[in-house]
Amino acid sequence: MFGGVMTESRLAPKTSTSSHAGRWYLIFLGLAVALIGGLFVFLMGRSFLRAREMRNWPETPCVIISSEIRERQHDENSPREFQANLSFGYEWQGQPRTGDRLTLRGNPWSSKRKLAEERAAAYPLGKQTTCRVSPENPDFAVLKTDSLAPGYSIWFPALFVVGGLGITIRAALKK
What is the pLDDT of residue 123? Predict the structure, then answer.
């Protein structure tokens, strides 16, 4: 009742374009978060499986035949980088071979000379050690296997997949 006149206002449910836009925004956001999380799950899973596979590569005795520090500088404005330049000899199926990889990714460069020196000191000239040889390519051998840590940490990006899908589903089912 307003001013003595009774008015009845029935509001029909309207769907506003802003609520549709908000819903689509949340769907897109949720899918983007899930896809990025999925990418990291894939990459970490691949690293874990590769590291686990390396542990099944056969071991063979090897000897360090060179161990030195390499230095580089891209230009006068960039910092110097250092690398433990290693090389080792091993025998595979009766044939002598050489390798130069500390890990699957090679010998990493570092801006810290001390870190490169520590890596080189762990493998001094003449040291008898073992290396792992790839059964598919016996010319490819490493002194250290990769870490299994990505497999233990894969739960974190998986949370983004679950959360992103949850956002998407909730936004899509919202009335």
Answer: 93
